[in-house]
Amino acid sequence: MVRIDKYLWAVRLFKTRSIATEACKKGKVMMDGVTVKSSRTLKPGDIVEIKDPPIIRKYKVLDVAEKRMGAKLTPEYIKEVTSHEELEVMELTRLANKMNRNKGTGRPTKKERRDLDSFFEGDD
């Protein structure tokens, strides 16, 4: 049995343990549709749900681990059981957001950066 925040960090679902703890505090981590505290213990066979708007990703705990592991070892400890339909919704949302960037917002593209550089270098 291991704490849920420690496990989510160990299987690389969160970059740091403090981010995993914060996700639990904000209600983004659930089990059986109920939000859980970061101190909740896990056992093999549990289903963990993580809110990743616009969907809820579901993972099955195959084995418990307390220490962070390499990415190649994670399939032995956790399995994603999110439906393919929900994953498609996620991908379509990402593509739609990517395509709807207004020109001039965010960081400049490489071409825009070269144009800016040539514009300012021309003033010398």
Main CATH class:
Alpha Beta
Number of strands: 7
Instruction: Give the low-pLDDT segments.
Output: none
End-to-end C-alpha gap: 67 Å
CATH topology: Structural Genomics Hypothetical 15.5 Kd Protein In mrcA-pckA Intergenic Region, Chain A
Task: Give the averaged pLDDT, no decimals.
Answer: 91
Number of helices: 4
Tell me the β content: 15-25%
- The structural domain count equals 1
Largest sheet composition: 5 strands, antiparallel
**Helix content percent band:** 25-40%
Classified in CATH, the superfamily is: RNA-binding S4 domain
Characterize the overall form: elongated
Which structural class is indicated by helix and strand composition? alpha+beta
Order of helices and strands: EHHEEEEEEHH
How do the strands of the widest beta sheet line up side by side?
3-2-5-6-7
Backbone CA Rg: 20 Å
Description:
With 124 residues, this protein is α+β, with helices and mostly antiparallel strands. The chain has a single domain, classed as RNA-binding S4 domain (Structural Genomics Hypothetical 15.5 Kd Protein In mrcA-pckA Intergenic Region, Chain A), CATH 3.10.290. The chain contains four helices and seven strands; from the N terminus they run E-H-H-E-E-E-E-E-E-H-H. The chain has helices at 4-10, 17-25, 84-99, 110-121; strands at residues 2-3, 29-31, 34-35, 41-42, 47-52, 55-61, 78-80. The strands form two sheets. The chain has a five-stranded antiparallel β-sheet. A two-stranded antiparallel sheet has the order 1-4. A hairpin with a 2-residue loop joins strand 2 (29-31) and strand 3 (34-35). The chain is elongated and about 65 Å long. 17% of the residues are buried. One of its GO terms (molecular function) is ribosomal large subunit binding. Belongs to the HSP15 family. This is Ribosome-associated heat shock protein Hsp15. Keywords: DNA-binding, RNA-binding, Stress response. It comes from Alkalitalea saponilacus.
